[in-house]
Each structure stands twice: as C-alpha cells, then as structure tokens.
Amino acid sequence: DANFRDVFGKRLNSAIRAEIGKILLGDMLTEKRAAVMDLISEQMKAQGAEFGTEVIDVRIGRTDLPDTTAQAVYNRMRSDRVAHAAELRAKGEQEKIRIQAEADKARTIIIAEAKKTSEILRGEGDGKRTEILNAAYGQDPDFFDFYRSMEALGNAIQEGTTMVLSPSSELFQFFNSLPVPKDGN
To answer: In this structure, is residue 77 part of a structural domain?
Structure first.
C-alpha cells in the first residue's frame, strides 16, 4: 500500500509535469486544461493496470511554480510592463510631435494670411494716398512741391540735426519769409 502510493504517486507526478511542460502555463486557464487532464488520465489508466487498480479520472486542482520559476515569471511580467509603458510613452511623444507640427503649420498659415492681408490693405492705403496727393497736385502744384520737399526733409533729418543751407535755396527762403510771432517765440 505505501509502496503503491510512492511509486504510483511518482509516476502520476511525472506524467503531470511532462504534459504541463508541453503547453504554456496560461493554457491551463483555458479549455486546453481539460484536454491535458484527459491525456494524463489515459496514461495513468494504463499504468494503474500494472498495479491492479483502475484509474477513473485525474484532476489538477492547483498548479504551483517552483520559487525560481515563479521569480522568473514575475520578472518577465515586470519587464513586459516596463516595455509596454515605454512603448506607450514613445507613442505619446510621437503624438505630441505630430500635434505640435500641425499647430506650427496652422500658425505659419495664419501668419502668412495675416501678412498677405496686411500688404493688401497697405497697398490699398498707399494707392488712396497717392490718389489724394495727385488731386492736391492738380489743385496747387507749388504747394504739392513744397509738401513733398517737407516730407522728404522730415524723413531725412532727426531731432537735433544741424543743417547748413544756402541763402539762395528755396527752403532757406521759405523759413526766412515766415512771419515772426508777436510774442517773440
């Protein structure tokens, strides 16, 4: 009786380990578990006949991993999680770069459109200004010449600029002909 338990138990343990070693551990949680137990039952029925016993069924209630194997499984699970997290971070970084590129593109388009509109409006304003100046020239060509001279002079000199004018220049004569204010300023 003790000899039977020892020998038959070792054979059963060996058959279980052999069959479980052929499949993935995760398969023991699927419908493949029943097929594995059926294979083990068939093997043990043949061996039970040697001892004059009948094996009706074999059931696996629990599958424990050896400590070294369990630690390796946990380490693999941990490294899989770390790799998955790194993959998610990389995808997030790619998405960030894509969104930034789209935003930069939209910004560039908006700025270009604004500059285009600005140039169009500036051109229209310059055209209107030229139209007004031409109308003024037609009414008083001397005033227009004077106005253009003053405008050019205003653009050319800065505050504190000293000018040397010939007494025969039109500008000198103009400033010389201005009436002097009564209060002396």
So the answer is: no
